[in-house]
Specification:
homodimer, alpha/beta, seven-stranded mixed beta sheet, about 35% helix
Chain lengths: ~350, ~350
Amino acid sequence: VLVDGIPYRSLWIADGAVHIIDQRRLPADLVTAALNTVEDVARAIREMWLRGAPLIGVAAAHGLALAVRHDPSDAAIERAAALLLGTRPTAVNLRWAVDEMRAALAAVPPAARAETAFARAQAMADADAETCRLIGEQGLPLLTAGERSEVRILTHCNAGWLAAVDWGTALAPVYLARERGQAVHVWVSETRPRNQGALTAWELGKAGVPHTLVADNACGHLLQRGMVDVVLVGADRVTAIGDVANKVGTYLKALAARAHGVPFYVAAPISTIDFGVGDGSAIPIEERDGREVTELAGTRLAPEGTAARNWAFDVTPATLVSGVVTERGVVPATTDGLERLRR
Amino acid sequence: VLVDGIPYRSLWIADGAVHIIDQRRLPADLVTAALNTVEDVARAIREMWLRGAPLIGVAAAHGLALAVRHDPSDAAIERAAALLLGTRPTAVNLRWAVDEMRAALAAVPPAARAETAFARAQAMADADAETCRLIGEQGLPLLTAGERSEVRILTHCNAGWLAAVDWGTALAPVYLARERGQAVHVWVSETRPRNQGALTAWELGKAGVPHTLVADNACGHLLQRGMVDVVLVGADRVTAIGDVANKVGTYLKALAARAHGVPFYVAAPISTIDFGVGDGSAIPIEERDGREVTELAGTRLAPEGTAARNWAFDVTPATLVSGVVTERGVVPATTDGLERLRR
């Protein structure tokens, strides 16, 4: 993507370091950070300098490459893999990327591993960008406005290029629609408690896509009053039967979409499908620090000492999902539908 | 209620002025404000120094009394009534209270109106406190824990004593349960964009009621995972057929409660029932300044120039409401059920 005329990805290699955009500073400031060790990468993932299931996977691959450059032994690779896998439990792309890297590195002798690791990590980044572009192509036909000139899309959290390497998942069809001259308007839900809706608003603003921010609480009203043509979200994990773990609050939007007959699509690369899990209740749901709910930018939002719980994700049952938009097509959120995508 | 050992109501008369708690300053500071004119009262309602459907009604009655003290003419009363009715459109208690006051004042000559007005306003405050206590009595049997020792309640926004004169509506049964030794735990939803969940956390903390704050987005997860026994919310308007306008986000919680077979009760005084409106889609939904979404306590939450929409309420259809808890009993959210309460 272009940001103020400058081409950007969410992650790249330069001067021997892995560079990322520090997303904690957005939307106020566009600041990059250089990560030099696997520990740097693990911290950046855990503390959410970067986030988004596809990007977490690609970043973890780069973390492994940094580890291998330092020490290419089997033991060092296992240590680095364990460190990265422990950062965030819900997104399956992280495990997928680490497993891919481990398999590739096991096939070459230690002396050749650093070169292999960086090549594989970079290839993974390039592949992710292409995958997301294809998700855009596959999802574009879903953006139909009926008799209106403009398609009204509701999205949740940030599933744009900041959450991937380029293009994004849920936003890829939106960007493609914009490129091809189709009028779109995006309702952006705030996405408490970490307000990733602000990242989506920033992305869409930079790309010139019309959008409006709303409180998460307003999404039922939007759907009830017929102001949304299609709901389009990303995913952190899709199970073999089509249950979807995504940013907490996704489930409520899916319930409201169903109640009002509005299609609810999940956009995700095939690497987000976890064929090893069936029922979504088996997905580990990350619980983060309650201070994400009780504090914001140094301001206390609740009385001193208020207890808070803070689940980062929820599970939307397959029955509420109109389809899964992948790089190889839109499939039903069913065992049969997803099985078609299995490699 | 007692706050740090001192008896409090949310509104009282002293030294010839109407005193309120400035709820914009909570939960950080307990600060009171003296209102001397109807214009003061109208501003306090519009700018949400005070809020909550029952309290808005009682405050408006006091505003009319202040106006009448200044000028008891019919014209002055009509001007004051129009000013107050224009502050906030959704809560029906406001109109109810103004109409009650107008009728009472029309029955007495101008010279007697100030005395009548203050007496009626104070009587309305006392009646509201008693009404809320009765709502507590009526609602208490709904707080059943099954086999657990503790009833787990989910509430939204603030429907406690800060939203009424004393006791509150949805929280009245909770306070009564606590008084009578029944173990309760309250899930408090943050209630973006104005974070009235913090008021509820503050109230419950002062009363020693165990509670936990969660993002609004987490409520689907809570209900899906069986962590809630009953949902209990207030209302700004209940229509003749049982549709319920309440704080935006209520509808999403009702959908999730229904999806998981958890009862969803609305607690409100009979004055909240608008027998003149059937379908909830006819209720005017207040839209507030988008900056409530894009800014918080001086911090920008979205990129400069981001458009935002900010509906303050939504409508939960009667079919999702397990019952309406009033001072005269718990009735079904149906025309027949509500008709029984008509005076």
